[in-house]
């Protein structure tokens, strides 16, 4: 009969320990709304894509690196949209008939997380190709942004943007 009392004591101790919330368990704000003004300024701010990685941790550039490097992204504060000015180099065909990029962002305020939704496509004749991805802002400064996927230090897909002068 001692086993049930012993089991009950362990269960109560475990319940007590689990009920005590550690302050370290609360979500940390990654970027404040004030910090994000570095991304879009007072109303808008333009950035040039300087690198597109398939594997940032191993500095493996994407096959699309060259076609992204001449693109300009203008982040707009009010609309959460990004105006994209595509460069002349196509991603799928050397001289595509049409190119389109749809980029927007969203901010999860209670976690301080900032995401970039990116869609890009192009057509040549009767053919059309596209890609879509979502990346999270990982590093921010007045002159450089790093959007990436994966764990810190082990980022896979990534875009580096630098301010346009």
Q: What is the global morphology? A: globular
Mean of all residue-level pLDDT scores? 86
Number of strands: 9
What share of residues are in beta strands? 35-45%
Radius of gyration: 23 Å
Architecture blueprint of SSEs:
Layout: H1 2-19, H2 37-40, E1 44-55, E2 60-61, H3 65-68, E3 72-76, E4 81-85, E5 98-108, E6 113-124, E7 127-140, E8 144-148, E9 158-163
Antiparallel strand pairs: 1-2, 1-3, 1-9, 3-4, 4-5, 5-6, 6-7, 7-8, 8-9
Q: Could you characterize the architecture of this molecule?
A:
- The chain has 165 residues and is α+β, with helices and mostly antiparallel strands.
- The protein is built from 3 helices and 9 strands; from the N terminus they run ααββαβββββββ.
- The chain has helices at 2-19, 37-40, 65-68, and strands at residues 44-55, 60-61, 72-76, 81-85, 98-108, 113-124, 127-140, 144-148, 158-163.
- Strands 1-3-4-5-6-7-8-9 form an 8-stranded antiparallel β-barrel.
- A hairpin with a 3-residue loop joins strand 7 and strand 8 (144-148).
- The longest helix has 18 residues, at 2-19.
Characteristics:
alpha+beta; 16% helix; 165 residues; 8-stranded antiparallel β-barrel
């Amino acid at each position: 009969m001692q086993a049930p009392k012993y089991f009950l004591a362990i269960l109560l101790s475990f319940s007590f320990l689990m009920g005590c919330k550690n302050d370290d368990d609360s979500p940390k704000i990654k970027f404040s709304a004030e910090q994000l003004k570095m991304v879009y300024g007072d109303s808008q701010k333009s950035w040039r894509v300087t690198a597109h990685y398939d594997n940032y941790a191993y500095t493996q550039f994407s096959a699309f690196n060259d076609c992204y490097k001449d693109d300009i992204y203008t982040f707009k504060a009010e609309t959460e949209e990004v105006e994209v000015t595509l460069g002349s180099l196509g991603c799928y065909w050397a001289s595509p008939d049409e190119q389109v990029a749809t980029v927007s962002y969203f901010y999860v305020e209670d976690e301080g997380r900032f995401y970039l939704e990116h869609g890009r496509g192009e057509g040549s004749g009767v053919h059309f190709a596209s890609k879509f991805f979502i990346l999270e802002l990982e590093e921010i400064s007045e002159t450089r942004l790093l959007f990436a996927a994966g764990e810190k230090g082990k980022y896979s897909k990534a875009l580096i943007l630098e301010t346009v002068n």
